[in-house]
Every structure is written in C-alpha cells, then in structure tokens.
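Comment thread on ticket #2218

A.B. wrote:
> Attaching the input chain for the structure job we discussed in standup.
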Amino acid sequence: MDRVIRATRRATQADEWALVLAAAGIPHRLEPDGAGWTLLVPAAEAARAQAALDAYDEEARRAPHAAVPDAASPRLAWAAGIAAGALLLAFFAVTGPPAAGSRWFEQGAASARHIVRGELWRAVTALTLHADAVHVAGNAVATAVLLPAVVQRLGVGCGLWLVLLSGAAANLLTAIAHDPRHVAVGASTATFGAVGILAALRLLPARSQAKPRWKRWMVLAASLVLLSMLGTSPGADILGHAFGLLAGGALGLVAGAVLRRPPGTVIQSLLVALAALVVLGCWRLALAGPAW
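C.D. wrote:
> Ran it. Output below, let me know if you need it in another format.
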C-alpha cells in the first residue's frame, strides 16, 4: 500500500523530490491533484524516503540559495502541457493507426532510408504519428506531465522549441545510426528530450549558487534510471529514447548557460507560433512528396 509523504503546488518541486528518490533507488510515484502534486511511496519505504528527502532539505538549507524565478506560472505551464497532449490525441483521431496505403504514415514516418536521403522533415512529422490508441495515450500523458516543468523554467515558447528540437534531433540521429529499414513513429523521443532538458537544468547551478557535486551526479543517475524504467520496454525504440535524452540534455545545458533570463511574453508567443508553423510546414513538405 502506498503512503503520501509530501505534497506541493509546484511541479518543479515535485520533480526535484522524485529525482532524489530515483537516485536513492526508492520506488515512488507522483500524482496530480486539484492543488498540485502528491508524492507516494510504498509504506515499507516511507521511512527511508523521508530520511532521503530530509537530508536533501538540510543540505539545501546550508547552501547559499538564490531563487530562480519561474518563467511561466503553474497554470500557464499546465495549460501548455495539456494542450500539447490533447493535440497528439486529436491528430491521432485524424490519422488513425498505420494501415495499408495510409498516406500519413507513408509520407510522415521516420524512415531511416528516406531521412538519410534528404527527407529531413520526417524527423518532425514522425513525432505526431502513433501506432495505436495505447501508444498515443501514453505519449499524451507523458507530454502533459513533463512539458509543464520545462515550460515553467523556460517559458512556453522556449520550452516547446527545446522539446521539439530534442525529439527531431533524436529521430535524425536514430536514422543515421540504425539500419536503413528502420521506421519509427511517436512523440516518445521528444518526451525523453524533456527529461534530458530538466536534468540539464538541474545540473546547472543557479545564479550565485554553487550546487554540491553529489547533487549533479544524483541528477544524472536519476535520468538514467528513468530511461531504463520507461524507455526499454518490449518494442520500444531504445536507441531513439537514448538519443532523445542526450539531445535534450545538450539543449538544456546550452539554454541554461546562454539564457540569463527567459525571453518576454511577446517573444515567447512568437516562438509558439513559429513552432506550430514548423510542424505544419514539415507536414506540407511530407504530403507534397511522392508516395513510397
């Protein structure tokens, strides 16, 4: 039986607690509620989990702390995550699952052979296609949960762009590394990109704050644990998930190092519009090309 050990209104705080427990090898799960998040662990692990979190809190109190303001409110961040997940579900209602003669999948799937021949838009269009209802539901939920944490740190536009770029980069790298016959669809490379982005942002010290070295190793270990738990299931594109994590980590490090503060509302809005235009443009290129 699971026991609630902590609750918070902030997604970033919940994510931080989850990383602490993942690094310690303690089973746990986060559940959204009306006011925020609750952290649950098996009753037998409650004492160990509480001790790990208390130790983390104690070290955080000892270190000089400079608060990093959120770039987006929790409400806006959650709205962005839920909207992105809903769009994945809505697009699946249009395309349906793969079927003989389906132009969506023939023209938009991440076919390694076609990508290396120059059809780079497939790296983006494949993120919006899914094999079945379970596949799209899982990715929609993962997007709705992970994207808000990225958005809250970087803003809606920057967050969307980094997640989109990490997923597309992972598909490109997978196409280069895989057999030419490899074909992939799904937003999971982007969701693992979001994990990598969040891990990278945790690795970077806040302004005027030295982060203890053990915390940096904890973040890396927790990311690898998440990859092994969620990204290596039967039938999963393990290489694509690993590339998504690496691409997200690299982009997160660059964004965290370059952006002294996230752009303002106008630029964030323009970035959102540009991201939508890029996805639509990639689909226009895909559907304009010859069928396989």
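A.B. wrote:
> Thanks. Noting for the ticket: The chain has two domains: 2-46, 121-288.
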